[in-house]
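Dear support,

I submitted the protein below through the web form. The confirmation email said the job was done, but the results page showed an empty box. After a refresh the structure appeared. I'm attaching both so you can tell me whether what I see now is the final result or a partial one.
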Amino acid sequence: MIQDVFLVGIGASPGIAIGSAYVVDRRRMSAVERTLEPHELEDEVRLFRDALGRSKEQLEDVKKRVADPHIADHLHIIDTHLLILQDPMLVEETVATIRREKINAEGALMRTLTRFRSVFDAIDDEYLRERRSDIDSVGDRILRNLIGVTQQSLADIERKSVVVAHDLSPADTMQIDKSRIIGFVTDLGGRTSHTTILARSLGIPAVVGLESITSQVREGMPVIIDGNTGTVVLNPSLDTFRDYLQKKQFYEYQTEELTSFRGLEAVTLDGHHIVLRSNIEIAEEVPIALREGAQGVGLFRTEFLYMQRKSVPTEEEQVTAYREIIERMAPHPVTIRTLDVGGDKLVSGIDLSDEANPAMGLRAIRFSLKEKNLFKVQLRSVLRASVYGKARLLFPMITGVAEIKSCKALLDEVKLELANEGHAFDADIEIGIMIETPAAALVTELLAREVDFLSVGTNDLIQYCLAVDRGNEHVAYLYEPLHPAVLRVLRMICQAAKQAGVMVGICGEMAADPLYTLVLLGLGFDEWSMNAPYISQVKRIVRQVYRPEAEQLVKELSDLGSAPEAARRLEQEMNKRFPSLFSRPISSSGE
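What the results page shows now:
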């Protein structure tokens, strides 16, 4: 038997697990489409509705059996699956397809699921794209009930194991007993699927997206999972086992040490405070954010509310969604970004015409200002929900003062309408804008006069600044956060905001990478928003430095001639200052 077979997937939940494999069959269900006689159609519709009913009963049973308090906070995920079971696009289209095409329920359902998936596959945004996994989970459950296939529950696993599966649904993950299941690996999946969110809540390592691991693992095979790096080792040698055992012990020690930072403030040695908030997309992430010490939500993406449906959400549906997050996060603020649709974000129920260059077309605030009725519904919803805690409004992709004034005029119009209708709302709700384009960066001092806060979206700003699509494999290597031009633009934004007396935050991926913590501190950002698991790492670094040191480092990096030089210098500095927390190989020339 070959030893030390190394596989690399996506590190979905951190930690290291060492154990024997328990292979479960979670292959995607398939169905054979067949033609029916006219007299068989209504019986087939009844079979489909019966399968929906059984699926609902199974999900309700999972909810009743959840005992782990960390998982109980995420029962909304099962509620989401229950809602999908009632979704008109799923139910009505499948029934209509049975009758119209005269085919069996399995074939009709597969056609409906294919249409669902095509919408999500066209999305470049990882989080939104991962919502397809919910459709897949629900679709598989219905198909199993149609065909009559039962599957083993993870709750029945009796020995301590590493679960190996093609995929796991949220319902599967909710049945995990941590005393017996120490980690899992799957062929499918991504970092932001509901299943991996649950894995992080449970605190068990997970590596997903391995594509073919189920075909390479036998029952009982020794397996090592490294959720930190996305590495899986099959049949490890003794030397590899010892190496990972040491890594596991060190990681657990380090994690325990970082836990002590959760309740502390992010304050430098010379007394400078930084506010650390969390980026979230759904209510289920609020408990994780609070547990990790987030001081509110710095970016709540609202696009998910518009997904998985034929029509846009109603005002009442939006009020309910915003209220839940605002109440659960209180007294901390929740920054709600208005709809950022267009470009790589496609939303059902919204008609977006094809564009030659959608990244620079009708997207984000441009789309909202064109579709004012849709925009007003969202503004009304946020304002009505604002009475349940602290809410802030964030407008995306602003490029000039005229856009801000148009947004504010519409907001004033909505406030007047709500007041006349007798609705309560926060009349002084804070307004912010995202700085995502060079144009906005160049006129930051003008934009800052119009708002209460600024939030820099580094993902788009870097792409637009360097004319690089980081999703394009041919030029992705040119996406360089430490490019001298990027550092100078970021410093210019911070300086302009300070001169205007306006808070400036950052919500792009740079905030979540500990490599850039000293850079962001030295640039002068007041508020950083990131995925919750990174907060403790960033906080620890902030608490161990003096801000003038970080400012001097930024000046030094900005004066270097290239991004690779700056990366090498920064990595050397981080390795020297934080050897126990931060260690990564020094970049070679040309990277």
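Response: this is the final, complete result; the empty box was a page-load delay. The radius of gyration is 25 Å.
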